[in-house]
């Protein structure tokens, strides 16, 4: 796009200039639509005849579908063809006006690129240029391109109409304030029920992560609301654009904390034009790989126990087990156990052939332990059995024993030998491993199995079961990933990562989380080094400290909650001021009335409002109160797979990762929140869910955690 300016910019009002340009781009796109290949209209009879299509017809259908998709893309892009412009003069060359959009657009007549895809190398200028001096550069496939920027402009187009033009940098003018103006304008919007893309306002530190080298694993510690999840999704879209030959969407995965969260983030990638990326939870992935041979003990029950106000006595033991199962030492111990188990995998004695020579144990052992040593155990078994079968068949042939009854004898001998091999179910080995470690045996696995019922395991058993599955079966090529994103990674254990690394041999990982939000502490990590150290050949570590979600007042308030509990990376708010955080005492008997009153007030200006309770039991009670008052409120519990927006009643621990325009934290009293790091983190998570308004209700005695913040 080497387009020289048609008009000297100073003489033209930016809005008028962009309105003219927009018309030109829209006309070009209309021409592209009118001139492009028209998909043939198929009648219903034809559609019914799919099975009878010839190869040429199949190819025609594929071409027609491509044409249809291309038209749909252009129609979508016409609603918002671009969102930014940067005027850049590469050294020794004339000025280029670069328009940046969600997708690249070409002028079909001239072949010129009139809009750059946001992921294109030159588009990086739009995100990395922060207006300190006019020098800028970007890395193109040919090398670094240096030059000067003379204009950076944000442009809002909705449904093909120009709405707003904000210059965040104009050569020779002091524009420092305008840099944030557009971001603030975007952040002030009320959000709907889904996470959205941020292509128009990606910040320099986020851009750096999105475009980071795919071959180096990256660990990101980001404060609440710093855009971790959003950035990870944009990174996937970027990597796919950048490496179309090496990466496939279906071989990329994002591990999210819950099915509800998967639903909440499900629209970002399609908005970015990316389909097919796997979005799942670790448990769902593990159960699928294990072919659902085990059932997960109700995960909701574990959460209810973990966040109950008073835990049963056996809870502490269960949590010690969780912690222990996540330690790398346990994984190493499992590997040692599996190494030893290998010795007992091969049946003792010879494979006795019905005709001719039998096979000595030593020969079979050489195959199993030496020749096939690099294969997973089950594959070794299959290869050995195939070789034994061939040997038996050859011996029978040599002995002239090829009639029907000899064949039957042969088959029986092979079956007999096969039956001497031990059972190769991962769970069998896991049970034996637990016998080695009685301190790790969960009550669920100790229970006698009902006939035909699938055994139940806890979430922390799954990584170890997967490790055994890998040892037995290796990795199915269909389960290999080109890139793995782990969100809320502070709740993953070192063993989770150790096991996942086998599914992604390229070590292309994006791992993100926030240690200040680690409310499942026994299950997760305390330091990022627990992950970083697992990549001896290098791993990048980045901290994101600016929170884009919440107002200045909310972030300041939430930060105070954690201060007594040691060093944490504190969130820095974007200077977006809003309402004061309201901390209000209510009489215990009036608490429902107070909440209803607040919900109704907040709902006037918020599309999403959440009432955050300390326990799931409380969430049920508040939900009932809302229903009785005629409010259409949704109860979010651990087994829910979708998130609907509107009014939500949620236990605080399930709200992690979500956000709401307004949040009411209820029952912030000493009975519900102790002076403890875990409860401080719970309140921190709750407060940082709010974008615009935060209200905290308590009945005396107020929790010390709040008392402290008031001091
Ligand atoms: N550059 C940006 N421009 C506009 N909005 C942004 C930007 N970065 C983040 N946001 C917004 O901030 C909010 C928080 O983003 P996100 O949920 O990705 O953060 P997070 O770090 O994963 O938060 P948490 O750890 O609290 O779950 C979202 O509404 C997102 O759209």
UniProtKB/TrEMBL annotation:
Gene behind this protein: uvrD
Protein name as it appears in the record: DNA helicase
Species for this entry: Alicyclobacillus hesperidum
PROSITE patterns: UVRD_HELICASE_ATP_BIND
Coiled coil regions in record: none
Family annotation (Pfam families): UvrD-helicase (PF00580), UvrD_C_2 (PF13538)
Superkingdom of the source species: Bacteria
Entry binding sites for ATP: 222-229
Record PANTHER family: DNA HELICASE IV, UVRD / RECB / PCRA DNA HELICASE FAMILY MEMBER
UniProt keyword terms in alphabetical order: ATP-binding, Helicase, Hydrolase, Nucleotide-binding
């Amino acid at each position: 796009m080497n387009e020289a300016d048609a008009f000297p910019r100073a003489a033209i009002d930016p809005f008028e200039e962009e309105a003219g340009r927009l018309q030109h781009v829209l006309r070009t796109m209309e021409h592209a639509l009118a001139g492009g290949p028209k998909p043939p209209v198929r009648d219903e009879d034809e559609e019914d005849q799919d099975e009878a299509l010839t190869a040429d017809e199949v190819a025609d259908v594929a071409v027609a579908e491509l044409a249809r998709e291309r038209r749909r893309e252009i129609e979508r892009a016409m609603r918002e063809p671009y969102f930014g412009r940067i005027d850049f003069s590469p050294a020794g060359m004339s000025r280029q006006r670069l328009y940046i959009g969600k997708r690249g657009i070409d002028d079909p007549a001239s072949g010129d690129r009139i809009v750059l895809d946001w992921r294109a190398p030159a588009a990086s200028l739009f995100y990395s240029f922060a207006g300190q001096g006019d020098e800028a550069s970007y890395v193109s496939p040919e090398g670094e391109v240096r030059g000067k920027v003379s204009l950076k402009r944000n442009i809002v187009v909705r449904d093909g109409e120009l709405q707003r033009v904000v210059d965040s940098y104009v050569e020779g003018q002091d524009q420092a304030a305008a840099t944030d103006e557009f971001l603030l304008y975007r952040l002030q919007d009320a959000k709907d029920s889904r996470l959205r893309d941020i292509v128009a306002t990606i910040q320099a530190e986020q851009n750096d992560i999105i475009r980071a080298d795919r071959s180096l694993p990256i660990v990101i510690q980001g404060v609440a609301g710093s855009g971790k999840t959003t950035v990870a999704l944009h990174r996937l879209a970027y990597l796919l654009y950048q490496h179309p030959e090496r990466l496939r969407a279906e071989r990329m995965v994002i591990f999210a904390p819950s099915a509800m969260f998967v639903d909440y983030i499900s629209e970002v990638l399609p908005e970015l034009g990316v389909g097919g990326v796997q979005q799942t939870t670790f448990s769902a992935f593990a159960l699928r790989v294990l072919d659902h041979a085990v059932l997960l003990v109700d995960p909701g029950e574990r959460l209810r126990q973990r966040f109950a106000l008073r835990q049963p006595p056996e809870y502490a033991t269960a949590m010690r087990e969780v912690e222990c199962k996540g330690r790398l030492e346990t994984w190493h111990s499992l590997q040692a156990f599996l190494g030893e188990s290998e010795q007992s995998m091969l049946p003792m004695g010879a494979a006795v052939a019905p005709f001719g020579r039998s096979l000595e144990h030593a020969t079979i052992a050489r195959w199993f332990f030496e020749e096939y040593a690099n294969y997973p155990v089950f594959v070794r078994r299959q290869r050995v059995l195939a070789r034994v079968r061939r040997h038996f068949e050859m011996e029978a042939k040599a002995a002239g024993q090829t009639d029907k009854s000899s064949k039957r004898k042969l088959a029986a001998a092979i079956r007999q030998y096969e039956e001497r091999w031990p059972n190769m179910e991962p769970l069998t080995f896991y049970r034996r491993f637990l016998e080695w470690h009685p301190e790790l045996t969960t009550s669920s696995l100790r229970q006698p199995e009902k006939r035909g019922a699938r055994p139940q395991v806890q979430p922390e058993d799954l990584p170890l079961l997967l490790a055994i599955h890998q040892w037995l079966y290796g990795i199915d090529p269909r389960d290999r990933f080109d890139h793995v994103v782990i969100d809320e990674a502070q709740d993953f254990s070192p063993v989770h990562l150790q096991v996942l690394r086998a599914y992604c041999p390229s070590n292309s990982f994006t791992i993100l989380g926030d240690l200040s939000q680690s409310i499942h502490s026994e299950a997760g990590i305390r330091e990022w080094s627990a992950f970083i150290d697992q990549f001896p050949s290098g791993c990048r570590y980045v901290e994101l400290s600016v929170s884009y979600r919440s107002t200045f007042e909310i972030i300041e308030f939430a930060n105070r909650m954690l201060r007594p509990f040691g060093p944490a990376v504190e969130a820095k708010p974007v200077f977006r001021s809003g309402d004061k955080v309201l901390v209000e005492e209510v009489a215990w008997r009036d608490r429902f009335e107070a909440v209803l009153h607040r919900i109704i007030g907040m709902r006037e200006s918020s599309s999403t409002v959440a009432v955050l309770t300390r326990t799931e039991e409380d969430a049920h009670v508040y939900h009932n109160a809302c229903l009785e008052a005629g409010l259409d409120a949704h109860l979010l519990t651990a087994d829910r797979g979708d998130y609907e927006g509107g009014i939500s009643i949620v236990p605080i621990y399930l709200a992690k990762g979500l956000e709401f325009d307004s949040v009411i934290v209820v029952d912030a009293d000493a009975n519900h929140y102790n002076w403890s790091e875990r409860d401080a983190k719970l309140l921190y998570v709750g407060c940082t869910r709010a974008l615009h308004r935060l209200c905290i209700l308590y009945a005396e005695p107020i929790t010390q955690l709040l008392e402290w913040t008031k001091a």
